[in-house]
Design a protein that fits this description.
Layout: E1 2-3, E2 5-12, E3 22-28, E4 49-52, E5 55-58, E6 61-62, H1 63-73, E7 78-84, H2 92-99, E8 106-110, H3 115-121, E9 127-131, H4 143-159, E10 163-170, H5 176-189, E11 195-199, H6 207-218, E12 224-226, H7 230-233
Parallel strand pairs: 2-4, 3-7, 7-8, 8-9, 9-10, 10-11, 11-12
Antiparallel strand pairs: 1-6, 2-3, 4-5
Helix pairs in contact: 2-3, 3-4, 4-5, 5-6
């Protein structure tokens, strides 16, 4: 099976509960959303070539090519394959084949908008980092439909014993009201699911506002953290 992949590289995870962990990143092309803060806009669309360190190879890539690249990039401190994008769940069949031919943990970074595809890969994913979008992200014209899909995806992974956490990007416009539906949705699944509030990078959001959002969420969920994008802070890919 083939997939259109934007780049494959080894770096440090900069977001969520595994921030600081070294991973091999496989960035897939294609995304159904258009988030205003997106920092990988070029990966929304198919790419003619995939970048692997200084090499460029023609797309689409066969699973065996991706596995060879992962093996070449693996180091003693590397812990996971991070499947990111774009939106990796658009390539759920490729993910299944990749997982069946490799023995290292798979960390999925997803906008969680495709519960049907999530169900297809839940048995091969070890960690699911699921985004919940907010109305002010302007990701879609049908926010309620997207939120419902995101919560269904989170429930699928959590129910399949995948280590699951949720990330919400906080903008200047973000308020308690705009995160209310997301927080209550997570609580209805399991109030112990970690929620990461991630200030958009670069940010000048007042720390008092961030702490207030944490306390609002913390009244409903048992594990709420505020973690910025550390890879942007230390200027690595």
């Amino acid at each position: 099976m083939n997939a259109n992949i934007y780049e494959i590289f080894n770096s440090v995870q900069g977001e969520g509960i595994y921030a600081g962990t070294r991973q091999v990143f496989v960035r897939f092309c294609g995304c159904q959303l258009r988030c205003e803060y997106c920092d990988t806009k070029d990966a929304r669309h198919p790419a003619d070539e995939c970048r692997i360190n200084e090499r460029r190879i023609d797309n689409p890539l066969d699973v065996s090519v991706v596995i060879n690249a992962i093996n070449d990039l693996w180091t003693p401190s590397t812990r996971h394959i991070s499947l990111t994008g774009g939106e990796p769940l658009l390539h759920h069949g490729f993910i299944k084949e990749l997982a069946s031919n490799i023995s290292v943990p798979i960390y999925l970074e997803t906008n969680a908008g495709f519960p049907k595809y999530a169900r297809n890969v839940a048995d091969v994913v070890d960690i699911a980092a699921c985004d919940i979008k907010l109305p002010e992200h302007r990701s879609t014209d049908n926010y309620d439909h997207l939120l419902h899909a995101e919560l269904e995806t989170i429930e699928i992974f959590h129910s399949m014993d995948v280590e699951t956490f949720v990330k919400i990007v906080v903008l200047m416009e973000t308020t308690e009201e705009s995160i209310k539906s997301a927080v209550s949705g997570i609580e209805s699944i399991d109030e112990s699911i970690p929620l990461i509030l991630q200030p958009v990078t670069p940010t000048n959001i007042d720390i008092r506002k961030l702490l207030g959002l944490m306390d609002f969420a913390g009244a409903h969920l048992s594990d709420v953290r505020m973690i910025p994008q550390i890879h942007r802070m230390i200027r690595i890919p």
